């Protein structure tokens, strides 16, 4: 029974919103809620008059009940214009409050309903219809002043006692204040909801930017939008990793399985990059690129990259055991000067260029399955802390004959 009642109540509140979205839909829902509130105020007034003297107060009873029925027509106007129902509701409320105030005078306190009605203008019309909002507020205030200054006694056909007017006053003022409080509360709640939504969007944007760009680079872009960001780094270490036999593997895997496979493995590599304080530059297919010593200088950049390379091999072996199949990496590392910067404006990304990058890529592509291949430059930096196995001279495209080494692990104490 409760669910049925709740469903019907929601259907009534949402009536007329089918054609609208966003602010217009919320405005119509607010108008429908006001219809319920104004109707809920009219009925007790009619009962109050009926109990006091149905014969003497038949005119305000009929007027109040007629207004209660007329309020129910409001949702039917939404289909014509998202503001039509709200304008009708406020106009009818103005007629009701002015008529009752004229009949029972300012001594009844009913004219405070005019102020309550004025507070609903912004909630109904919003800031996009400032003229309507301002007009409704000014009209409500003007009517309030007119009643307060001119309607000092009840109309001649209304015969009520001073006690009735006192009771009416003490009922009207709290009711009007409660109505105003509800409107103010609603306004602050909407503002708070909007602020929370903006904060969530800001946090999401910040997190997205942090994932796309290194922190210092993202900070520069926010401080200087549109500025070209390019830095030269005299000392850096570049790592390229590639999954051995990935192309044949990809040919017999479904797209979902393939993407899931790469995502699981590369997520582990992302975690390793964070662990060692390195900057993941990009992934390209099954290739994974990491840089050390940038965008901020790191004296131990080569050591960090070497440790990550060893961890990548260990993590890949662990992943292979979990998958129940053979998975190997080819890893190439080289150290030297590089140039780094941000490319693009709509989809900016941080990239690295230079001979060091090209050489690191060659170390991977001309490497050995399951091995970490490094140049003599990188070995010279690392040889005090790591063990190496000499591969010898290898003809590298575009580089000629190079003495290359395999990184095997940390030097045992």
What does this structure look like?
With 413 residues, the chain is an alpha+beta fold. The chain has 2 domains: 2-205, no CATH class; 228-410, Nucleotide cyclase, GGDEF domain (Alpha-Beta Plaits, 2-Layer Sandwich). Helix content is 59%, strand content 17%. It contains 13 helices and 8 strands. The longest helix has 51 residues, at 162-212. The mean pLDDT is 83.
Tag the structure with descriptive keywords.
Alpha-Beta Plaits; alpha+beta; 413 residues; eight-stranded mixed sheet
- Please describe the biggest sheet, giving its number of strands, its sense, and whether it closes into a barrel: 8 strands, mixed
User: How would you classify the helix and strand content by structural class?
Assistant: alpha+beta
Query: C-alpha Rg, in Å?
Result: 38 Å
**Silhouette:** rod-shaped
Q: How much β-strand is present in the residues?
A: 15-25%
Q: Total number of β-strand segments?
A: 8
Provide the helix percentage. Answer: 55-70%
Helical stretch tally: 13
Instruction: Give the terminus-to-terminus CA distance.
Output: 76 Å
What is the average per-residue confidence, as pLDDT, rounded to a whole number? 83
Report the uncertain regions: none
Number of domains: 2
Order of helices and strands: HHHHHHHHEHHEEHEEHEHEE
Topology:
Blueprint: H1 2-13, H2 22-53, H3 58-71, H4 84-104, H5 112-125, H6 130-150, H7 162-212, H8 215-223, E1 230-243, H9 246-251, H10 255-276, E2 279-284, E3 287-292, H11 301-323, E4 329-343, E5 349-353, H12 355-365, E6 372-375, H13 376-382, E7 386-396, E8 400-410
Parallel strand pairs: 4-6
Antiparallel strand pairs: 1-3, 1-4, 2-3, 4-5, 6-8, 7-8
